[in-house]
Specification:
Distance between the termini: 66 Å
Number of strands: 2
Structural class: mainly alpha
Strand order of the largest sheet: 1-2
Radius of gyration: 27 Å
Number of helices: 3
Largest sheet: 2 strands, antiparallel
Oligomer: single chain
C-alpha cells in the first residue's frame, strides 16, 4: 500500500509495507532505496530517497478453505499455545522478592472503630 500523495505534500518519506494477515500475502509491499544495508536504508529515509513498492501483480487468489483453515488456527490453536508459553515463561522467572519491614520498625497503630 502506498500513501504517496500525503507523504509528498507532508514532507514524510514514502515507504512501502504490508499488513499481511495470511502468509501468502507477506512481502506484498516493500520499500525501494539506494543501498544495501540498514545504514543505507536509514540514510535514504532521512533524505527522503525511498519509494514504496509492491502489488505489481495482484496476490494469488486463495481457495476459501485455506482462509478458513488459517482463521481457525489463529482462533482455536494459537491462543492456548500463547497462554502456555506465557505460563512457562512466568514459571521460569525467579520469584519477586517480598517486601518486608525491618524488625526494628514498629507496625503502624491499629485503627479503632471511632469516627
Amino acid at each position: 500500500m502506498s500513501y504517496a500523495k500525503p507523504t509528498r505534500t507532508g514532507g514524510l518519506a514514502e515507504i512501502g509495507s504490508s499488513d499481511a494477515h495470511f502468509w501468502q500475502h507477506i512481502g506484498a509491499g516493500y520499500t525501494r532505496f539506494p543501498g544495501v544495508d540498514a545504514a543505507d536504508l536509514r540514510r535514504a529515509i532521512v533524505d527522503r530517497a525511498v519509494r514504496a513498492g509492491g502489488q505489481e501483480q495482484p496476490p494469488a487468489r486463495l481457495n476459501p478453505a485455506s482462509y478458513v483453515a488459517q482463521c481457525a488456527w489463529s482462533w482455536f490453536v494459537d491462543p492456548p499455545r500463547r497462554m502456555l508459553r506465557r505460563r512457562r515463561a512466568a514459571a521460569a522467572m525467579p520469584p519477586a522478592p517480598r517486601s518486608r519491614q525491618p524488625p526494628d520498625v514498629p507496625p503502624p497503630p491499629a485503627r479503632t472503630g471511632g469516627t
